[in-house]
Design goal:
By secondary structure, the protein is α/β, with parallel strands linked by helices. The protein contains 22 helices and 18 strands.
Length: 656
């Protein structure tokens, strides 16, 4: 995939990903992932000196107070006096003191106690429906405590609002009425509405130190008993919250219990207020960036992952994705432990694996397309059985070549021009198609690679693009098999009898896809290829149909039955090349012995003996008749002008 397209895909993925992660479902998932991390982190010790005095079932029982009626105000007065005695800094009541109590003396005592110790008491917003002729409307009002208490204590809102049943964010005023009062935790921490101290933002989260009862809790009745051992140091200079902690989940207790990120049992409202006060006193809540910042960050991350997905392999992307997940989990754990919310859980755990899956799918489809392209490109070069081997060669279709030791084979039809001179073009085409079909069937059966058809000639190689260890042996076997197939072809008598001449050579050659980026062919080039073509042409001088070089014979392991027909020096080559052929059926042993002896005499310039030998072979074996005539012609030429010194029996062929 080209760079501009990769960039476009990355930008598209970033935009789509940002839209997806902004949905309420994934936003909620991010939060719930942070909940799980908090639970793994476990409890922390609250940093500030905040204590909760619980109005619990034990206190009701020990103080012999019936459930239902309001808690006696006389006991609140005693509690405040005891807290002052213990040196408490401030008392905070998550309790509403609405109207005059049934016991006037208790109200007087509580008013006096409120003056002795800085105290915060709760107020609550209430919505009242007002009816009129137009249908009515809702009016929000603040329900204030008994007037004497208002003058003796600080007022604060006690309401908490959950989101989907879970308390996560700091309370915020909903109306102008509420904005006149601080919330209970703010007042407890000594913060007012106009206080310049740092405050949590609307997206910041409450930093919980653990599940319920993480903040120190003392049962209400214990503080009123002189005989009980009380740790006074726990209350000295402490902010003491007073509120309901009833497990019975009835009445006010049922309305004042909430679910927290730690899950499990519910946390009571007074504990939540105490936790928020702890955050404010230490200015250590969980900070969260704006939604825009989170979306931009996640979009950039998704875009980067998409870019990697189009650049690196699926395995490398898998490693990167796993590393990203681990890194995010570590940073998220560290962030929640130190007061920072790291978004992107859904991006890392859902979007990133989705990108990995898409990248893997794209790579698979690309590989399949490449395989099909490979099959299509080489289906005319190779047999179908060889294509799976080629697919494992990875670089089969790269533009460019490499130098390899291979075997090349050229074929040609003898006197093709004369044979087809009087034939209609349609008949010539039909004959060639039938002929090439037979020849290429043999080439493919023997693991050869067709390079091209050149007129009536065939150019094939062995050993590339699929590597074959015994390529020379397979090429020679193919040459012999072609001769047999041509004999069968001629026996049908559908076309004029054909004679196929074959040249084979083994050596270094450059093979690969050569050409331009717009048009290239799989081919082989080099001196070794040229020599194979020249050897095919030498058949007409020796009267043979198959010639292969000494290098082919050596690579093929010798080839029993190979007949040495001479040493030649062709045009463009300095060194002479030893040539071999094969006959089917093989030469008679006596004929072969006579031939080898004549050739030896020839190379030793014992021309009379050589001449007699060639004459003898010519009369005994017609298949060597033309070769004998070639040597006899050379002997007659050299009788008048012997070859130069250093000659070793080679024949010179200056023409191609």
């Amino acid at each position: 995939m080209k760079l501009p397209l990769r960039i476009a895909v990355s930008i598209g993925a970033a935009v789509i990903g940002a839209f997806i992660v902004s949905t309420s479902f994934l936003e909620d998932l991010d939060i719930r992932l942070s909940d799980q991390i908090l639970r793994v982190r476990g409890k922390q010790k609250p940093p500030a000196k905040v204590v909760v005095v619980a109005i619990d079932e034990t206190s009701y029982r020990e103080l012999n107070i019936p459930f239902g009626p309001p808690w006696p105000r006389a006991l609140h007065a005693q509690l405040l006096n005891r807290l002052k005695e213990f040196g408490a800094k401030r008392a905070v009541f998550d309790v509403l003191f609405m109207g005059e109590g049934a016991d006037r003396a208790a109200d007087v005592a509580l008013t006096a106690a409120l003056k002795e110790l800085p105290t915060v008491i709760g107020v609550e917003a209430a919505v009242r429906h007002v009816s009129n002729q137009a249908g009515g409307y809702e009016l929000e009002e603040i329900e204030l405590p008994f007037e004497p208490f208002r003058k003796s204590a600080k007022l604060a809102l006690v309401g908490l609002r959950d989101v989907s049943g879970v308390i996560r964010n700091f309370p915020a005023a909903r109306s102008e009425q509420e904005s006149r009062y601080p919330f209970l935790a703010e007042a407890a921490a000594g913060r007012g509405r106009q206080d310049p101290s740092p405050k949590p933002g609307p997206r910041d989260l409450i930093r919980y130190y653990g599940p319920g009862r993480t903040v120190p809790i003392i049962s209400y009745w214990e503080l009123l008993q002189d005989e009980l051992p009380i740790d006074r140091d726990l209350f000295e200079d402490a902010i003491v919250f007073v509120g309901i902690l009833l497990r019975s989940d009835t009445g006010a207790a049922q309305k004042d219990s909430y679910q927290t990120p730690f899950g499990g049992s519910m946390m009571y409202g007074v504990e939540v207020h105490a936790t928020i006060a702890n955050n404010l006193l230490t200015e250590s809540w969980i900070s969260r960036p704006s939604k825009a910042v989170e979306l931009i960050g996640q979009a950039l991350l998704i875009g980067a992952l998409a870019f990697l997905g189009t650049t690196i392999t699926p395995i490398a992307l898998s490693i990167a994705t796993i590393s990203l997940i681990i890194t995010w989990l570590v940073l998220a754990f560290w962030g929640l432990s130190t007061g920072f919310f790291l978004c992107g859980g859904s991006t890392v755990l859902i979007v990133a694996p989705t990108i990995l899956l898409a990248s893997t799918g794209y790579s698979y489809l690309s590989a399949r397309q490449s395989e099909e392209s490979l099959k299509s490109a080489f289906s005319l070069y190779l047999s179908p059985e060889m294509l799976p081997d080629l697919q494992r060669e990875k670089d089969g279709l790269k533009l460019g070549g490499e130098k390899l030791w291979l075997t090349a084979l050229f074929t040609d039809i003898a006197d093709f021009t004369s044979i087809t001179e009087e034939m209609p073009a349609e008949k010539t085409s039909e004959m060639l198609n039938a002929y090439f079909t037979e020849v290429m069937e043999v080439v493919f059966q023997n693991q050869g690679t067709l390079i091209k058809f050149i007129g009536d000639a065939v150019f094939a190689i062995w050993g590339a693009p699929v590597k074959i260890a015994n390529h020379a042996e397979m090429a020679v076997k193919t040459g012999l098999a072609i001769q047999k197939e041509v004999t069968k072809f001629n026996s049908t008598q559908r076309f004029p009898a054909l004679i196929t001449r074959i040249g084979i050579n083994t050596g270094p050659m450059v093979v690969g896809n050569l050409g331009s980026k717009r048009r290239f062919d799989y081919t082989a080039i080099g001196d070794s290829v040229n020599l194979a073509a020249r050897l095919e042409g030498l058949n007409k001088y020796f009267g043979t149909t198959l010639i292969f070089s000494e290098s082919t014979r050596k690579d093929a392991g010798g080839f029993a039955g190979a007949v040495e027909i001479g040493k030649v020096r062709v045009k463009g080559k300095r060194e002479a090349v030893q040539l071999f052929t094969m006959f089917d059926p093989p030469l008679a042993p006596t004929v072969l012995e006579s031939w080898n002896r004549a050739c030896d005499e020839f190379s030793q310039l014992r021309l009379e003996s050589a001449e007699a030998g060639y004459q003898k072979v010519k009369s005994e074996e017609p298949r060597l008749g033309k070769a004998c005539s070639l040597y006899l012609s050379e002997i007659r030429r050299w009788a008048d002008s012997p070859p130069s010194q250093g000659w070793s029996g080679e024949l010179e062929f200056d023409s191609k």
